[in-house]
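User: Could you write out the 3D structure of this protein bound to magnesium ion? I've included everything you need below.
Assistant: Certainly. Input first, then the structure.
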Amino acid sequence: MARPQMMAPICLVENHNDQLSVNQTAIEILDNISQPVVVVAIVGLYRTGKSYLMNRLAEQNHGFPLGSTVQSETKGIWMWCVPHPTKPNHTLVLLDTEGLGDVEKGDSKNDSWIFALAVLLSSTFVYNSMGTINHQALEQLHYVTELTELIRAKSSPNPDGIKNSTEFVSFFPDFIWAVRDFMLELQIDGKSITEDEYLENALKLIPGVNPRVQASNLPRECIRHFFPKRKCFVFDQPTRDKALLRKLETISEEQLDPMFLEQTRAFVSFIFTHGKIKTLREGIKVTGNRLGTLVTTYVDAINNGAVPCLDDAVTTLAQRENSAAVQKAAEHYSEQMDQRLMLPTDTLQELLDVHTACEKEAIAVFMEHSFKDENQQFQKKLLELIEEKKRMFMLKNEEASDQYCQEELNRLSKAFVENISTFSVPGGHRLYMEMREKIEHDYWQVPRKGVKASEVFQSFLQSQATIESSILQADTALTAGEKTIAEERAQKEAAEKEQELLRQKQEEQRQLIEAQERSQKENLEQLKTKLMQEREQLIKDHEIMLERQLQHQKALLEEGFRKQSEEMKEEIQRLNSIVDDMKKNSGSFIGRILSEFATLIAAPILLPVMVVKSIVSAFK
Ligand SMILES: Nc1nc2c(ncn2[C@@H]2O[C@H](COP(=O)(O)OP(=O)(O)OP(=O)(O)O)[C@@H](O)[C@H]2O)c(=O)[nH]1
Ligand SMILES: [Mg+2]
């Protein structure tokens, strides 16, 4: 099923008795979505109209349940997958979360985890709040300051010394602040400002040492640092009528404040147009089934007392998908070989040519569906699988040829064999030889006998050797001398045929070695292309990180925060030198991996190759 159709939202992450768990039914739904996903998550204080806004994104009145009392309605994280309204073949995944800061909740730790999960899973993260963006609103957003403790980019501390949080920009979502029941005029010093300017103004650091100011500066810094792409939407009250407010989902659009309606439409349209596909680092696009794996990996980590880690999640994804990619590629090889080969093939070379073409395609299928194949272990597995399959096709080819040759030879030699006694007459040996030569001639006229043609005929000749000799000896038309000459000729011819057969085998071994060399070359070439692409993407990721750091540093300097700006210098220098090194060393880095892989794939094949080579030299 490529197109998801969910009639209603479903709980994705349950939050029961302060324990998070993944709902398997929701994972199964995601597993069936192979389309890329645009994921919008909404987070914010409880009872602030989050679920209502998410229903607007699903273009529905009902869906995520709203509550009209002060008791919080949504628990855990709920999911609704709908076809993307403007991007064909994409799925829009809406994640509605449990309201933060509910006083009725005992433990607030899960609030932090829900916040972190929403950040990790979404490509657009909506922070929803009521009223205005003031000190209080920013203090309530303290969860953002905890993210460095709750999310890890790499499983072990960065060997290159880059801070964990610096890496956030390479996989964090775009940030939208939705301000509900906004009553103020968008003006500063009498001048109209946009919503985005309103947000940026609110995020400017406030000078001073007042602890309250410092407390709200930290979330400001974190938002600016972790979410370089920011947007703000303000909303009027949906209606002045309190009774209607409590049952918003039941009222028609005409009953809503036109301004609110317009603002909601602008918000929805922005997300439909600009909401990006969820992307992990290095350009890895998230599909529905990948999202399912991510949720499971992250929630497992939390439940095991660990910190959800992007790299670990990517490794899990890669393991799962690379092994599926091996299967897919191997199946492609088998299917194509089945389709393109007509057994028996005329020569071994004919089979090997088809094999080379099919293997090339299979490697391409693997490359398309795999990523981060550490030590190329999956590619090696594919190579071994294809080698095994190739041997099986060769065996089948030999069997088909053997059977066909036997049948043809039986047909051609039937009368000859049945009437063998008729040669026991004077001059019978000459007749026998003429008949046998005719059979041989006719046999070689039969097309597409395949790789076993000579061998089968050779066995036939061997089976005739004693008969021929007795016919010769019994032939009274020949002198003893003529018989000796005939005997010697027969032996010479047999030896020549034997030699010819060995030459054919030798030639076939040479073709096999060549095919293996072609295969290794193809594997290395396609790996090289893939490694270059991955490397380019990695460099791009680091360049983006660097650019964001520079932007942030510049903004701090412009706002007069020289000290903070100076503090960023070291990290920027580190990033700069990493990017430089990566660019400089790309060639040698890829070269090293390729040569390691070349040794790895040569080893298991080399053994038969060496055996083959010794066989070949024995023939010389
Ligand atoms: N004042 C006001 N009320 C709203 C708005 N949007 C929805 N409501 C009403 O607020 C109540 C709560 O709405 P929900 O959408 O359930 O809010 P929520 O943030 O999802 O609530 P929790 O899931 O409990 O955290 C309902 O009665 C809605 O009708 C809004 O923009 N302003
Ligand atoms: Mg809700």
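The chain has 18 helices and ten strands.
User: Perfect, thank you.
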